[in-house]
Amino acid sequence: MTNHLLHENVALVIAKNWAAIGSPTYDGASVSAKPVELNYFRRGGEFLFPLYIYNKDICSPAESLSLAFRDFIDQHYQGHHYNAEQILGYIYAILHAPTYRRRYAEFLRIDFPRIPFAEKRGDFEILSRLGTELIEAHLLRGFPRRGLADYHGRGDNSVEKPRYVEAEERVFINDAQSFAPVPKAVWEFHIGGYQVLDKYLKSRKGRRLSLDEINHIAAVADTLAFTIEQMAQIDDAWAKAFPDRG
Asked: What global pTM score does this model have?
């Protein structure tokens, strides 16, 4: 499946069973536009589902959705044909709805997620839009900039022992240099079993951060803040689409 990501594409990255990646709550959903390494999720628990399939004999890709699933979607929404990106956006939103994660926690612990589809087209479209915006943010293609994780201090940019000081909303990489502000919720945010910012810095321990890496940390912090806000909006949309599944 990774070969299909050598072309223009996006893949849903899913944990088959959340228990395998060792997170306290479900966080086994992500996206990637490129091939990923074995430990993209903690303990190597990820499976990739490319949105498009590239046949070596065919220049244009085909969507990876099965004909049976495509027929189900078209019939469920009274013949309205949503494109593959809209469907992926909807699925991504559902996977990031906190209520969905709590309600189906025991099932998510042992198997692939199952996606409920809203009865009303309007609810589908709202969730699809919210999920698509989240996908774009997670691919770092488009997200609101908030000025988080500005770089402070003078030094050689060496990552010695990353540590978080909650009272200052500051992440130190050494005694003299740090990123701030970094809200606690952003610092503690997990994806695939990893505490995102902590993992990024610890994997660079003993190295000097480049300018690109410094800028990348700020972008990731902004993206995580957006993710937290977007998940709250997704949960509101979930409650309207599934009032009996709170």
From this structure: 0.94
